[in-house]
Amino acid sequence: MAGMLNRIKEFAKSPQGRRAAEQARRAAADPRKRAQAQRLLGKLRGRGH
Description:
By secondary structure, this protein is mainly α. It has one domain. It contains three helices and no strands. It is flat and about 35 Å long.
């Protein structure tokens, strides 16, 4: 488990990780994207059918 956390930390520090985090922040700030994500999570949890 510790190895996986270290890999995640390293990714977050990398340019790719920072880019992904920034994209996620922008998507979370957009109301339409947030609603789309909520629908997707609902489907994944089995409540969106």
